[in-house]
Specification:
16% strand, 3-stranded antiparallel beta sheet, alpha+beta, 7 helices, 5-stranded antiparallel beta sheet, 277 residues
């Protein structure tokens, strides 16, 4: 597992700043600092997460422990979240940088990643794809540049850090497609060898159909990746994985071996025990 080690004073995937555009009273904080959707007049404190934090949390691929470590006070959009999902640790700080925090787009989110670098890159990729905009572009230019300087960043290196993380996240998905395609080619060779000795096997047509399904789903995964649609890539790869198993003669042989073993066990259980003493 690659871990994040950001250069001091430089923008990196471990230290990013995102522009918030919208926020509303959709969540609340309970007494233990837990975050939950707001339903009517709850007992917890209202918190304005905003579109960036909400999208980040929805994009987590593993169950996460989410804690509000700094609760909002009079300003419901000023808070700090601590997020732990597997080997990834993320801290999100929401604070105003323009207009005295009177409007949602006057806020930014500071994102500090630690731990699994691949998971961080993938989360950044998913965030940008889901938002449909460039979150590193701060809407209020001069105030935005000053906010970056207070974080020890500059515009050029900060934008490059975002783009590099997005590229690596995309490359990770591309690698998953490539790995499954390599497995597909191996199965093609095994299936062709198996078909040479199984011309009249009724299962041959079904296995070839599964192989065609793998090819179609791999094409769909590539198309989804070209559109930066990560969930579409994952769904297509999951279908391709399932179909690949069904098309693999190794899987068929495993099923036959299991069936033969169960038959032998059944025959042994049915034998009468004769006492010859």
């Amino acid at each position: 597992m690659k871990e994040l080690h950001p250069p001091k004073g430089m923008a990196s995937p471990a230290n990013l700043v995102a522009q918030v555009l919208r926020a509303g009273p959709d969540h609340e904080v309970d007494e233990a600092g837990g975050l939950r959707p707001r339903r009517g007049r709850g007992a917890g404190d209202v918190i304005y997460l905003g579109d960036v934090a909400t999208t980040l949390l929805h994009g987590l691929r593993q169950a996460a422990a989410i804690t509000v470590v700094e609760r909002p006070r009079f300003d419901e959009q000023r808070w700090v979240l601590d997020v732990r999902a597997g080997d990834l640790h993320l801290v999100v700080r929401s604070r105003p940088y323009w207009g005295f925090g009177l409007v949602g787009h006057g806020y930014l989110n500071e994102l500090t990643f630690d731990g699994d670098a691949d998971a961080a890159d993938r989360l950044v990729f998913d965030l940008c794809a889901a938002l449909g905009r460039d979150p590193w572009v701060l809407r209020h230019g001069g105030a935005g540049r000053r906010a970056l300087m207070r974080c020890g960043l500059d515009e050029a290196s900060h934008e490059a850090a975002w783009k590099d993380a997005v590229r690596r996240g995309r490359d990770g998905l591309r690698g998953e497609i490539r790995a499954l395609n390599d497995r597909h080619e191996d199965v093609v060779q095994r299936l062709h060898a198996w078909l040479d000795g199984a011309e009249h096997d009724a299962r041959a047509t079904e296995m070839q159909h599964h192989l065609m399904q793998v090819e179609e789903d791999l094409a769909l995964a590539r198309r989804a990746l070209s559109e930066d649609h990560a969930p579409g890539v994952e769904r297509a790869l999951a279908r391709a994985e399932a179909a690949l198993i069904q098309a693999d003669p190794v899987h068929l042989q495993s099923l036959e071996a299991d069936a033969e073993g169960k038959t032998m066990l059944s025959l042994q259980d049915d034998l009468d025990v004769v006492d010859l003493t």
